[in-house]
Amino acid sequence: MKLPAIHRVSAWLCALAVASAALIVSAASQTTRGATPEAILAIMYRLLLDLPTNVVVNEPVRSPLEALSREPCDQKAIEELGTALEKVGRRREAANALTSFSATCGHHAPSLRSAVNILLTLSDYTRAASVASDLIALEPFSDNGYFLRAVAYDRGGSTRQAIDDYVTAIELFGAKDRISSVGYFAMARAYEKLGQFCDALLPIESWVSLNPARHDTSQTRAIIADYTAKGRCLAAAAGSEEVFKFPRESKLVRLPVSINGVRGNFILDTGATFVALTSSFAQKAMVQIEPDSKVQLHTANGMTDGKRGRAATMQLRSLAAKDVPVVVQADAKAAYGDGVDGLLGMSFLSHFKVSIDTQAVRISGRRAK
């Protein structure tokens, strides 16, 4: 007869305790450091560790276990234990120990970060995404948790969710001049998986635009040409050179932008991957929104939720682009400043050549598609 679930769990825990006690007694006989079998058993039980004797008595494993038996929330010891368990091929146990340490020691972001990376190598993408979500809850303004969860979603087949997190990770990375290409290329491949080749151009062109002298290479040109051909992304942008001078009192350049024929005031933001809109302006312009998407946006009032969408047309004086990806803030309140309808980011600007000096911003046609 099959035992009820609670009885099965209790039986398993008892069996684990007996087996672990036997292992620890054996292990304790081989150490002179003074940690009692009960203390070692207690820390292993707390960290959800079920290890054979030959692993427990291994010096790199035994030493941090003993340290944790004395100081249960020793952050250096859990790092050493995780590393030691990985080296002896016990990666699953290492991930369990790291997540359990975080849960029982007031939450510890470095342990969660290490656990996610281990779970990714084990191809356990569901749990990797879950632990990355815990990391995001601890560090909501850090790009790393979102990037790790994006990788987990991406490899696990949740492509649209991966794109959302790649977008957020890139947006949260402060110094774009030091950002890696990894997130941009991964986002492009995610769009490629969906067959959205013209959208796949955006992250690559955004990456090139950050530093054309370094990033406009034979590789990026080949990728752009490939996506352009596959998606037939022709005549996406047009226009002559337009010059916008910096106002004397500010370095913020406000631009008159029309989206789907509705005119608004936008702040130039070459660090933003997407054009960002307030929800009220998006409604007026009848912007198409992907209801299941969710990204995080920077605003004057801090971080806010948003959704990805598309603008059929976008125009800045003579500069025009079609089918432009955008993000729309979920908060109905004004978030970019008085009289500002959004940020003019790279999903529009990447179609053009943008040069900035101390006096003005110059935007002109860059390539025909």
| CATH-scheme architecture of the largest domain | Beta Barrel
Instruction: Classify the helix fraction into a percent range.
Output: 40-55%
**Structural class from helices and strands?**
alpha+beta
**Count of alpha and pi helical runs:** 16
- The chain-level mean pLDDT equals 86
- At the fold tier of CATH, the topology name of the largest domain is Cathepsin D, subunit A, domain 1
Radius of gyration based on Cα positions: 26 Å
How many domains would you count in the coordinates? 3
Strand neighbour order, sheet with most strands: 3-4-10-5-9-8
Describe this structure in words.
The longest helix has 24 residues, at 5-28. The protein has helices at 5-28, 37-46, 53-56, 59-70, 75-87, 91-104, 109-121, 125-138, 143-156, 159-172, 182-193, 197-210, 212-215, 218-231, 279-284, 346-349; strands at residues 237-238, 242-245, 254-259, 262-268, 275-277, 288-289, 295-299, 302-316, 319-329, 342-344, 352-356, 360-365. It is elongated. Helix 1 packs across helix 2, helix 6 packs antiparallel against helix 7 (109-121) and helix 12 runs antiparallel to helix 14 (218-231). The chain has 16 helices and 12 strands. The strands form 2 sheets. It has a 6-stranded mixed beta barrel with strand order 3-4-10-5-9-8. With 369 residues, it is of the alpha+beta class. It is 50% helix and 19% strand. It has 3 domains: 5-106, no CATH class; 175-231; 237-365, Cathepsin D, subunit A, domain 1 (Beta Barrel). The chain starts with a helix and ends with a strand.
